[in-house]
Amino acid sequence: MLASMAFYREQVLPRVRNRLLDLGGTREIRARVCAGLRGEVIEIGFGSGLNLPFLPDDVATLWAVEPSRVARALSTRRRADAPVPVVFAADDAGALPFPDQRFDAALSTWTMCTLPDPVAALREVRRVLKPGRTLHFVEHGASPDEPVARWQDRATPLWHQLAGGCNLNRDVPGLLARAGFTVTTLETYYERRAPKVLGHMYEGRAVA
What is the pTM assigned to this prediction? Predict the structure, then answer.
């Protein structure tokens, strides 16, 4: 049982995410979130490189943080076609191997839900960002609608097991605030192609 779960988590889930997170709606969102990135950029939860086609020409290098070897392999063609060079920087967002104030911008798309310690990871991102620089993000999380939020709380324990540690009910603005970020722009909405329990989105910018 443990071996089969490990196979599912390590081999199957990255391929599922590679498909499901590359649909039309998510591409539109990625394009918005990546707009305005420039300079040396660190991305936590790089996955299979689904943001690469949307990076502006002003990005000098993308430094990718991704623990999954399968996801990194799935990104091979996208990296070859990418408008900017990609460097695999680390596999643990909670312990980034960089000095303070190293990066010009940071990027996180559908990542905070699976981080084992999201506040610690976001503090690391803030540490390596230059003062006043921006984290671009989109995340799904806790709904403000009480009936939806109750279903998120009920479903999260099972979903956590099925979806590789994903949590449906995280308070994204709260996590950012606890990590020391100041949210400067924030839009919340239900992604139109997703069930509400999965699809409440937080999209915006946060300054270190």
Answer: 0.95
Q: Which residues contact 191 (CB under 8 A, 6 or more apart)?
A: 25, 26, 29, 140, 199, 200, 201
Residues 6+ apart with CB under 8 A from 110: 21, 45, 138, 139, 140
Q: What is the pLDDT along the chain (208 residues), one digit of tens a residue?
A: 556 667 777 888 889 898 888 887 899 999 999 999 999 999 999 999 999 999 999 999 999 999 999 999 999 999 999 989 999 999 999 999 999 999 999 999 999 999 999 999 999 999 999 999 999 999 999 999 999 999 999 999 999 988 989 999 999 999 999 999 999 999 999 998 889 999 999 999 999 9
Nearest Cα neighbor of 30 from 146, 203, 208 is 203
